[in-house]
Specification:
It contains two helices and seven strands; from the N terminus they run βαββββαββ. The protein is an alpha/beta fold. It has a single domain, classed as 2,3-Dihydroxybiphenyl 1,2-Dioxygenase, domain 1. It has a seven-stranded mixed sheet with strand order 2-3-4-1-5-7-6. It is elongated, with a radius of gyration of 15 Å.
Length: about 130
């Protein structure tokens, strides 16, 4: 098995309960003055609305999740070899949890994983 390389991705997703969604979007747009754009959510069936925010070199995705009771933060990782990365992570007890959010129409190979603290990461093969 090759030794996979991991790098940070440029996407951060904030999963927001429906009851706090509008106020959160307004916070980034109106209070902080960031450029906030509503985007298509057809790729993520668990998300009812999403807005993207330029957050330095990153994109912060404000995702409205109707059945959440508290916010959650998800991060993106890249690897040059998804199979080797999944194997290395499995060796320490980290297994794909792709059921957390089915993704449709993505052009890359991906897995959802959780770190030991339970924070969700999208692990995407780059290259």
């Amino acid at each position: 098995m090759s030794k996979p390389e991991f790098t940070a991705g440029l996407n951060i997703a904030m999963k927001i309960p429906k009851a706090q969604y509008e106020a959160t979007v307004a916070f980034y747009r109106d209070t902080l003055g960031f450029d906030v754009k509503e985007d298509d959510v057809s790729y993520a069936p668990t998300v009812s609305r999403t807005h993207s925010v330029r957050f330095g070199p990153n994109t912060l995705w404000l995702d409205c999740v109707d059945n959440y009771s508290q916010p959650d933060l998800w991060l993106q990782l890249h690897t040059d070899d998804l199979d080797a990365a999944a194997g290395k992570l499995a060796d320490i007890g980290i297994h794909p949890c792709d059921e957390v959010e089915p993704l449709n129409n993505l052009d890359s190979r991906t897995h959802w994983i959780k770190n030991p603290a339970g924070v969700v990461h999208l692990l995407a093969e780059s290259g």
